[in-house]
Design brief:
This protein is an alpha/beta fold and about 350 residues long. The chain has a single domain, classed as Aldolase class I (TIM Barrel, Alpha-Beta Barrel), CATH 3.20.20.70. It is built from twelve helices and ten strands. The strands form two sheets. Strands 9-8-7-6-3-2-1-10 form an eight-stranded parallel sheet. A two-stranded antiparallel ribbon has the order 4-5. Helix 7 (about 225-235) links the parallel strand 8 and strand 9. The longest helix has 26 residues, at about 285-310.
Length: about 350
C-alpha cells in the first residue's frame, strides 16, 4: 500500500546519491569520543568534543551524501563545516536508564521531532536498545517510545531513521554500558527486534541495523552458509522498509565484508562513524597528524565504501515513488493539510 508523504520524499532524496543510494557519515557519537579524549587528557571539555567532531566533518563530509549530527555539540556549531547534502539529527539521549534486564531510552532534554524539523533536519535518528527477551516493562517502554516518535515524524512529515542495538544483561559475557558490539550476541535477538519495528504502527522509514552475526565472522572474505543465511533473514525481517548498515566500530575489513553481504540482500547503503574515522585519532590531540590521517587513510576507506555502494547497493527509486503525492489536480494546495 502506498504511503504518500511529499515532505518525506523530498527529505529522503536529499540523503541519497544520484542513484538513490545512501552513503552517510555519523559524527553524533558522544561516549566513544568522551572516552578517547579522557584516555589522553583525563577529562574532556565541550570545546574538545566540538573540535574532535569538526575535524571529521571538515575532512570527510564531502565524500558523504548525508551527515548525522547531535544537537549538543554539533548543531549549530558544525553545520557550516559540512559539505554533505543531507542532514540527519539525533533525538535520543546517550544516557539511558537500566533496570533489571532492560534498558529505557529517552530524548535529549528539551529536544523534539518538531525542533529537528524546524531547524532544517532531513531525518530524525533514534538509537533504541532492544531485546525481545528483556523485562516486560522495558519492552513496553521501548515500543511506546518508538511508536510515539514515529507518529510525530508523520505529523511533521520528516523521515524516521531507527537504529536498533541489542545489548548484554548484567549476567552475560562482556557486560558493558559502553557503545560496543555485544559479544556472543544471538542472531535471533537482532532479527526479531527488526521484525517488531517493521510493523506499520511504528512508521519507520529507514532502518540503521547492526550485523546479525559477530563482526569476527566477517573478517574472512569467505562467508559460512549460516552467516549468509543470517543476512537474508535480516533483510526479510525489514518487511521491505529500506535499511542501511551501521559499523559498531568493527574493523575496516569486517565492515566492508558486512556491506557486501548486506547489499546482496537488499540494503541501500551505510551510516557509519567509528570504523571510518576512529583510527585517525590515535595521535590525539595532535591535530596535524589527525588531519593527515583523515585526509589519507580515512578518505581512502570511505571511497572504497562508496564504490561498493554505487555498484552493489539497492536503489531507493521505486520506494521513493510511493512516497510522493502525485496529484495533478489544481485543488492540491487547497486539500494539502499543514501541521
Amino acid at each position: 500500500m502506498k504511503s504518500h508523504s511529499t515532505g518525506k520524499y523530498i527529505h529522503i532524496k536529499k540523503l541519497c546519491n544520484h542513484r538513490n543510494q545512501l552513503q552517510m557519515l555519523a559524527i553524533d557519537q558522544r561516549p566513544p569520543i568522551f572516552n578517547l579524549i579522557k584516555n589522553k587528557k583525563k577529562k574532556y571539555t565541550f570545546e574538545d568534543v566540538v573540535e574532535f567532531k569538526k575535524q571529521i566533518s571538515l575532512n570527510l563530509s564531502h565524500l558523504s551524501t548525508a551527515i548525522l549530527m547531535d544537537p549538543v555539540y554539533s548543531i549549530p556549531n558544525l553545520v557550516t563545516t559540512s559539505k554533505s547534502n543531507g542532514l540527519i539529527i539525533t533525538l535520543e539521549d546517550h544516557a539511558f536508564a537500566e533496570k533489571g534486564r532492560g534498558r529505557y531510552s529517552k530524548n535529549i532534554k528539551n529536544w523534539t521531532v518538531e525542533k529537528i524539523k524546524k531547524i532544517g533536519g532531513d531525518a530524525v535518528k533514534v538509537l533504541a536498545w532492544y531485546r525481545p527477551d528483556a523485562d516486560k516493562k522495558s519492552i513496553q517502554h521501548q515500543k511506546k517510545y518508538i511508536e510515539t516518535i514515529g507518529k510525530q515524524c508523520v505529523k511533521y512529515d520528516i523521515p524516521f531513521l531507527l537504529e536498533l542495538l541489542v545489548y548484554p544483561f548484567h549476567s552475560e559475557v562482556g557486560y558493558s554500558k559502553d557503545y560496543l558490539e555485544q559479544k556472543q550476541k544471538k542472531q535471533n535477538h537482532v532479527i526479531e527486534s527488526v521484525k517488531e519495528f517493521s510493523k506499520k504502527k511504528y512508521n519507520v522509514d529507514i532502518f540503521k541495523l547492526e550485523s546479525p552475526v559477530d563482526s569476527s565472522k566477517l573478517e574472512s572474505d569467505k562467508f559460512s552458509k549460516s552467516t549468509a543465511a543470517a543476512f537474508k533473514k535480516l533483510s526479510e525481517a525489514t518487511n521491505n522498509i529500506p535499511w542501511v548498515m551501521l559499523s559498531s566500530g568493527m574493523s575496516k575489513k569486517s565492515f566492508l565484508n558486512c556491506l557486501k553481504l548486506a547489499y546482496k540482500n537488499g540494503a541501500s547503503g551505510y551510516l557509519a562513524g567509528r570504523t571510518i574515522w576512529l583510527d585517525s585519532f590515535k595521535d590525539y590531540p595532535n591535530y596535524s597528524k589527525i588531519t593527515k590521517n583523515l585526509k589519507k587513510e580515512a578518505s581512502s576507506y570511505v571511497k572504497k565504501l562508496n564504490t561498493l555502494t554505487k555498484n552493489k547497493a539497492h536503489s531507493l527509486e521505486d520506494y521513493l515513488k510511493n512516497k510522493l503525492i502525485q496529484k495533478k489536480s489544481i485543488n492540491f494546495k487547497n486539500t494539502y493539510k499543514g501541521f
